[in-house]
Structure formats: C-alpha cells, structure tokens
Description:
Elements: E1 5-8, H1 9-38, H2 47-71, E2 73-76, E3 91-96, E4 101-107, E5 118-120, H3 124-129, E6 137-142, E7 145-155
Amino acid sequence: MVEKVPMTAEGHERLEADLKNLKHHQRPAVIKxxxxxxxxGDLSENAEYHAAKExxxxxxxxxxxxxxxxxxxxxxxxxxxxxxxxxxxxxxSLADENDKIFKYQIVGxxxxxxxxxxxxxxxxIGRALIGRKIGDEIEVKTPKGETYYEITNxxxx
Length: 157
C-alpha cells in the first residue's frame, strides 16, 4: 500500500510548479550544456561537462522525488474543514505562559516555513496540537526545555 503524503492545496500547487520548471526549463538547459561541453572535445578533462553531468543527476533525482510526492499527495483544502478540533491544515492560535500569542498553520513536511507561520504536522508542536481543541493546554518538549501553550483559536482558512 502506498503511503499518502498530506499537503495543502497551496503546497501541492507549489510542488507541481517546481516539477514543471525542472522538466520544461532546467532539464533542457542542462542537456544543452552537456551537448556544448561535449563539442569541446576530450571529456576526461572537461570541467564544464562534468559539472553539467552532475547538475543533470541532481535535476533527475529531484524530478523523481517530486513526481513521487505529487503522485502520493493527499490534498487537503482547509476551507472544506470545520470544527473545534485541530486537524491537518488548521490555523491555530496559541498563548504561551506569558500570554504571548503565536499563530501557526499545520502543513506537510514540504511546505514548512516557520517565518510564515507554517509548521509540519510531525514537528513537536504540530504533533502536540493535532486532535486538541480550543481551551486545551499542550506541553511541548523543545531543546530549551518544556513549553506550555493554551489553544486560543482554531480556524480553517
């Protein structure tokens, strides 16, 4: 059985755009660079050829990785969800012990951007939040020690 990879619609679109760019722009460009380097003669001492072949290997590996993720994607549309419980794709507001508010959206591992408030569902905070509801207190173990938060809001936006 193929394991599904949860991701938001936004994250899925970004992976598909990356895949399209690799297939239709970067792959043809590196193939052209290899052909041009080949035209220069002796391949054993041709740095351009070896660099282009290395780049080609990276691009092909990335294409294979993205194709796998896109094919296994379980796309979640946050606006189609509702309720009080924290689910994948929910945007959650938390208050720490000093009443400082944090707001995070729970996303897939390829969508993480902490500076934009997007955390993975498998991160320590993400795991602690899933299944909880407004008013629940959670304990998160971090390298700095244990931190406590209260869930103040759950939105599906």
